[in-house]
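Proteins fold. Shown next:

***
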Amino acid sequence: MGMLPRLAALVLCCSALVSAGELKLIALFSDHAVLQAGDAAVFGKAHPGAKVNVKLGSVEASATAGNDGKWSATLAGLKPTEQGKDLVVSSGEEVFTAHDVIIGEVWIGSGQSNMQWTVSNTSTVVEAKSRPADAGLRVFTVARTPKAEPADDVQGSWVLSAPDTVESFTATGFYFGRELRANIKQPVGIIHTSIGGTRAEAWGPKGMYAGDADAKDFDANESSAIKARAVALEKLTAKIAVEKDKPALAKLNKAAASLAPVWSNGPHMNWNGMVAPLVGYSVRGAIWYQGESNAGQPLYHRPAPSFPCPSSGVGGR
C-alpha cells in the first residue's frame, strides 16, 4: 500500500474513533435512577445534528443535538411507579441503557455539615438499620469535587435504601425522604450534594449577586481573594524549590496544599463541580441546610436565597 492510501486509511480510522461514543448522559441517568413524576427531562450530548430517541416503558420522546452537541428531550406524563424499567437512549448505532429506573419525587439535599452528617452518626441509626430494605427510597451522593469552572458531569451512583446502605446516607436527606415517602406513597429520590464547613456563596453560580445592591462588592472581593491566594501560593512554591531542610519542607508542603487554587470554600466552586452538572434534571424541590459558616457575615442571609432550584429542574431548566 502506498503512502497516500495509508494516510487515507489512518484518517478514516481516526474519524471513526472520534465519532464513536459521542452519546453521553450525566451520571444521574444511570441504573436505579429516580425520575420526577410528570414531565421529566432527559439530556446529554451527541454528535451535532444527530437525532436522539428516548424511551422509558411506553413513553417516548426525541430531540436533535444542537451545534454544540447538546440535546434535551422530555418524557411527558410520567406516573409514579416502583416498577423498575429500562431507560433507553439511542442515536444512530449508539444505545445507552439505564436499568431499574423508577418514577416518583426527586429532591436535592445541599448545604454544609448539617446535610453531610450521615445516618451512622445519629442516635437512631440502629432503628434505621432494623427496617427492611426499601427499593422505593434511593439516594445519589455526589462526590466532593469543587471546580474552578462549571463541570459537565458528577461522580456518584444511585443507592437503594437497605440495612447495609443507610449508614452512609445523609441523615437529613434520608429521614426527610423516608417521611415524605410515607406520606405521599410514592418513590422518593434524594440527590445529596454537600461539603461540611462551606459558605453559601460556594454553592451559587457566578453572578448570583447581580441586582442585589447590598452585595455589590461581593464579586470584587471574591476576585481579590482568588488573586491573593494565587500570589501566596506562587511565593510558597518558590520557597519550597530552594528549601533543603526536610522538617521545614514538610510544613511548607502542607501550607501549599492549603492554598490550592480550587477549594471547597472557593467562590462558586462547589456550584461548578457539584451542582452545575445537575442543571436540567427534573426535581420537585430542594432542602437546604446551611448557615453557620456565614453567621458572622452581616449579609449572610443574602446568598442563600439565590440557590436556584425551582420545581422545573435544578437551576431552572
The helical segments are 3-19, 113-116, 125-130, 171-184, 218-242, 246-257, 269-274. Residues 218-242 form the longest helix (25 residues). Residues 1-20, 303-312 have pLDDT under 50 and may be disordered.
